[in-house]
Design brief:
- This protein has 173 residues and is α+β, with helices and mostly antiparallel strands.
- It has one domain.
- The strands form 2 sheets. It has a 3-stranded antiparallel sheet.
- Helix 2 runs antiparallel to helix 3.
- It is elongated.
Length: 173
Amino acid sequence: MHKIHHRQADQIARPHGERGQGLVELALVIPVLVIIVVGALDLGRVFFSVITVTNVSREGARYLILHTDDRLVDNTDPVCYDLNVTPPEPKPQDYCIVEAAKQEAQASPFAPLVVDPDQFTFTISCYDGPDDDVLCDRRTEASVTAIYQFHPITLWFLPDAIEIRRTTKMMVP
């Protein structure tokens, strides 16, 4: 007798046409909530990428101004040494600037989830007169531009990636 009473109460509280209303509302709201959550995560990825690209350009410029004396024996071409191989190999200075910048990109524990250090492109220059050279002399302005193509999750309908570009200029002491 007690069970019949509850069944009758449910039938009185919910008319026959409204039985699945909660499920329909949930089915309509869940996609919107998922888009909001994924969009928030993607916005965090964008901010992290901007910070990483800024740090990468700063590290490249820092390396450039601190290693102005890297030269070959004949004092003509700037070089650095790749210490990852034995014996260390001389490389163009651009190589070591880019490697220092990539190491900065890999320094964060979350970097592999957000940025790929091998996807950066760099523009390296010094402004010391009409002959722009990578080797910066004293009291010249060194400039490193880091460019990264960011691929958002939520804007999958866009054909291209979003370009994040940061330039750092430092004076050579």
